[in-house]
Structure formats: structure tokens, C-alpha cells
Amino acid sequence: MQTARTTEQWRELDAAHHLHPFTDPHSLNQQGARVITRGEGIHLWDSEGHKIIDGMAGLWCVNIGYGRKDLPEVARRQMEDLAYYNTFFKTTHPAVVELSHLLSEVAPEGFRHIFYTNSGSESVDTMMRMVRHFWAVQGKPEKKVLIGRWNGYHGSTIGGASLGGMTYMHEQGDLPIPGIEHVEQPWWYKYGKDMTPEEFGLAAARWVEDKILEVGPERVAAFVGEPIQGAGGVIIPPSTYWPEVERICRKYDVLLVADEVICGFGRTGEWFGQQTMGFRPDIFTTAKGLSSGYLPIGAVFVGDRVANVLVAGGDFNHGFTYSGHPVAAAVAHANVKALRDEGIVDRVKNETGPYMQERWRATFGNFDHVDDVRGVGLIQGFTLVRNKATHELFPEWGTAGTMCRDIFFENNLIMRACGDHIVAAPPLVITKAEIDEMLGVAGRCLERFEKVVREKGMAG
Ligand code: PLP
Q: Keywords for this entry (predicted)?
């Protein structure tokens, strides 16, 4: 919606009436929000006409890029035919049937059943209720503890925020709820430098085993993790971690759940992060790239073991008015079909992903205050450090990250700071020339950042 107001007027109205997620209203209103008005491919424009490179695909979600003309057309046609009907009780509609069929084709083998939601948080909450229901209908209602990881992110609902390991979220609203446990994240740079990454991957997986034994396997319903932690700062576990976690979960008959809300739909160069990281979950949660953010929709993919129990288990008393919403389902279908048929996911795997990783390392590898330069497909990060030789982090976690992110933003590049991790996840349609453009700006911003670090005496 475009209205004829000035930037100042939008800012004033925004400050007067709009509470922003994860934002301190006071500091936002001092500066005024940047008003984003248009998008095309990997670029956004603000109300002052600045062209911005969106190195984050919105919130890791606009996989297919901005400004597609086919998706609004699909939405318009679906709204005309059937704007809404629900899938409760005994009705369905063509849009949700077609989407389910397509998703079962792109999913790894053995995932033939899908439950719809409106967001990643709802997918996570749905999964939490589903795994408890799975054990309860098999006569094991006491098997209900879910294990997540510190610094993992699983959304903002009470369930998702509890399962996530963001302590600053737990501090508000008396979280986590009972029945949730956490283990440490598989972050080699912080916890494992005295071992090889492979040894550390096995050691970090043993934290999961220790927690299962501490709680008692008969009480543990599932272990849940992002294949690659996104909001936690693009923490990529060593290759040994996930296969070992899978072995441990099987050993103790604990369900293994992948939260693919960020990794899903091509982000890592495969359709799903589990394929890149080499493990097979029992259930996985998705949202974001499912519709590339064109409309809100999420999906929980249920593997055969769990689906067989659910199908035989009677009513699952759970669902949303908009589960499988026809317009969102039709748009998601067109989006996933385009990601597949236009070879977008294949290109991330074979062309743009490898190119990004090579250029990312070449661009950032030689800065004094940048370490642990990492990435796969089109998800990447690095960590800002006080002293690279001694691997010393800055003393106040997050200050350097925010400073660096603000320099990007002032230079019309969006990358994100997760504490002192700087991360990027551009739309999957990014070209090699656009990767050069993005990293050219980012490199110049890092030079500026290091100058400020020196001037402020923050260097170690
Ligand atoms: N799970 C993961 C791994 C996420 O990264 C996110 C959001 O970033 C969520 C769940 C929550 O998704 P939403 O914000 O759509 O509720």
C-alpha cells in the first residue's frame, strides 16, 4: 500500500501507533524507522529513494527474491475462486492438496504428511504438541520433556521461546515453561578449540546424551535443533555432530526434530539443512522460504514413523483457523515450484553458493578483527574479535556487532548482527555479479569498522 505521505509523516505515525518486534521503542523513535517501500530481486528501496542491498532476504525468508509478478497473480486468482475455507473436520480444498503433494515430492524420502501453520513459531508449537501426543497415544504420557539448545532460536510464542535458548527472551514472561531442557550449542570456536572440529562435534553430541541420561530416557520426548543455528549467529556444527546426535536419539528412543525454518527451501544448497548436515529427523518444522515471505504460512513435515501413529491415534486436538489457508497455500505452491523448476535451489548448490563462500572468505579472511569466517550455500557469518591471534572476543558481547551492522545499514547494505556474529543470507536468486556488489560494499564497511575500533581503543 502506497499512501501520499512524506517520510517524516510515516515516521511520526509509526512512532505514535506501532510497537515493533524486538525493538526498544525509545531508541527507535529518537532516530525514526527507515520506511521501506519497494523491492526487486535482492534490492529494496526506502522512502527517500535509497537503493539497499538486502543481504538478509528480509528475515532469512525472501528466498525467491522481491518483486515476482507471478505470485500476486496466483494470489489474486485464488482469492477470486476461494478466498478462504478451513481444513478442520471433513473439508479440504485444491490449493492445500496440491501444495501437500508438491511438498511431499521435494521433501526427503519418508516425509509424506504435512500439517499447516501460519509461521515458524506456530510450526514449533505444533511440533511440541505433536511429539507429546505421539508418545501419549502409545501409552507413554510421561515421555514429554523436550531438549533444545542454549542460543537456539525457535520463535516467540510461549512454546517456541521456551524451547529456544535465548536467555534474554526467557527473562521476560517467566520462561521456560516446565518440561523444557537445554544443552550447550555446538560452537567450536567458543567451546572446542582444544580439539579438532570433528572431535568437538562428537563431544558436543555427548552433551545431548548426558542430558537424556540426566532427565531419564523414559521422560524425554524429543531433541530439537536447527541444522545450522541461524539467529544464534550461523553456528555450523562440525560434520560429526548431527550423525552422532541421530545415533544417540535412536539409542534412547528419543524423537529427533530439525527446525528448518531458516535452513529449509534451498538456503544451504540442498532443499533442507538436514541433507547438508547429513541426518534424518523424525519431524521437521518450516515456514519462511515456503512462501518466500509473500504470505504467512508454515508447515510441519511428519515422517512415516510419527505419521503412522498419528493417523491411527484419533483426533489431534490442534489447529489454526488459517491452517492451510487457500491463498497462502496457492502462493507457497507457486513459490516452491519456481524454486524447483527455475533451478534456483540447484544454482545455490552448484554455482552461487560455492561462489559466495569463496568470495566471503576472500573478502573477510584478512581483517584484524574478523575470525571464524564460515558458511555454506547462501548462509554465512563471521565473528568480530578483539584479538585474532589469541581468539579473544570483545568484552561486551554485542557492542561491536551493533556498531558494524549500523555501518552496513548507513551504507545501504542489510546484514545482521547476532551479538558479535555478523551474518548474511541473501535471496537465493542473487547473481555472481550481485555477490561481488554486496561484498564490495561489505568490505569497505569493514575497513571503516576497524578504523573505528582503533580510534575507540577497543583493539586488543
Ligand atoms: N525457528 C527458527 C529456526 C527461526 O529462525 C524462526 C524465526 O526466525 C522461527 C522458528 C520462528 O519463526 P516465525 O518468526 O515465523 O514465528
A: Aminotransferase, Pyridoxal phosphate, Transferase
